[in-house]
Predict the structure.
Amino acid sequence: MSLQTGTKFEIYIEQLFRDCGFDDVERNLLYIKYGWFRKRKAAQVDIQVGKKGIVSIPLIYELKYSSNGNITLSENPVDQLLRAVKITGYRPGGIITNKGYSEGLRNYARARKVKLYDSSYLAKLEKKRRSLDGHGILCISFAGKDLEQRIGIVEKEISGINPRQYANKSRTIYL
């Protein structure tokens, strides 16, 4: 996977979440926390939804784009997400991929109560986004399409993103 493809996937998810009504969506955040003896802990968050408030705690998501196949346990996005949760104190939203997950990773995530979202979830969100045309009418591009066709449309959306059109939204937050 190229860095540009990963960035395109982050931009795609950011826009998809916004278009589906998620509030306060931010992408590519770096949290830094200093502990005893100036020991530094850092966690990179791909997508954060919501702002920290008196009664609200943001959700954080780990994103994994795959051009080959399912995401496996060797890539270990579950531990990446849980490390970010521990450092930030935020809630785990889950792990999102454009493909699927190996059985080993599914079992590992289930044991740690981490939600996994795959291409079928993206297709559902894309269907929701395309139905929000202001009149409640489903857009033609998704009407009557099966899941594989919807996933193909999602892949086309991702590949069509030009990262240069979006500001480099990397932000560092000190806790």
In short: Helices lie at 3-19, 77-88, 103-111, 119-131, 147-159. Residues 134-140 have pLDDT under 50 and may be disordered.
